[in-house]
TrEMBL record:
Cellular compartments annotated: Membrane
CC annotations in GO: membrane
Main location: membrane
Designated name of the protein: Ig-like domain-containing protein
SUPFAM superfamilies, alphabetized: Immunoglobulin (SSF48726)
Family matches, as Pfam families: C2-set_2, Ig_3
InterPro entries xrefs: CD80_C2-set (IPR013162), Ig-like_dom (IPR007110), Ig-like_dom_sf (IPR036179), Ig-like_fold (IPR013783), Ig_sub (IPR003599), Ig_sub2 (IPR003598)
Source organism (scientific name): Anopheles epiroticus
Amino acid sequence: MRKMYIKSVSRTTDQSVSAELSILANVTDNQAQYRCEAHNSATEIPLFETKVLTVHFAPETAKIRIEPAELRPGIEATLICDSSSSNPPAKLSWRHEGTVLEGTNNSSKAGLWGGTVSSLELKLNVTQDMDGHVYTCQSTNEMLQRSINVAVNLPVLYEPRFQPPAETVVHGVAGEPLTVALAATGNPSSIAYTWTKDGQPIASTGGEPRIVSEGPILNITRLERSDAGVYTCEAVNSQGSAMINITLQVKCK
C-alpha cells in the first residue's frame, strides 16, 4: 500500500498536542486508512493510531439486461437490473405501470471503492400484448435517500394480427366506387400485404387497373356485378402471417 504524508494543523497546550486533518471526501476515500503518528525526542518508536474511513455514496448508474435477447409469446423472459457500486448496498425494486412487482434472485458482490454492486431479476411469462410495455428498475441508497431509475421498453416479436373490421360482408352498388380498408399490427412492423379474389392475385398500385391494392387497402374505381366474391388479404412479416376474408356483394342500381 502506497503511503502519502499529508499536512495537518497542530494545536499545542501545556500538556498535549493535537493534529487536525480536514478532508473533502469522495467515493475513492471509502475504506482508506489514515494513520496519525506522534513522536518526540523521548520516543524511539513513534506512537500511532489508524482509522479506516467510511464514505457513504449512492449508485451512479443502473442498467437492464433482457434474456433471451429476442422475446416471443409463450416464453419466459428474465429482466436483470444491475446497479453500480453503492455504500451501503442499494435496494432494488421493479415497477410496471405504477405497480411494484416482486423480484427474484436478489444478489450482490464487491464493487468499486469498497462498495457493493446489487442485482435483482424479474421473471415474465411473455404475451403478445406485452410488446412496448415499460418496466422500471429503481435503485435506492436508503441511508442517503437517493434513487436512480432506469426503464426498458419490452420488445415482443409476433406475427401480424388483423384488427377486426367493422364487417366482413361488404355491400356495393354497380357503377359506384368501393374501398375496403383493413389494418394489421405486428413486430417487426414491416408487413407485406397480398390481395386475392377467389384465389386469384389482385394487382398492386401501378398503371390504371380498375381494381388495385395498396397495402391493406383495396380500391375498386367502378363496381361491376362480376366483382362479387370473396377477397382475401394476407399480411406477412418475419414472424409469420395472417389472413382475413371479405365477402363483397354487388347490387344493381
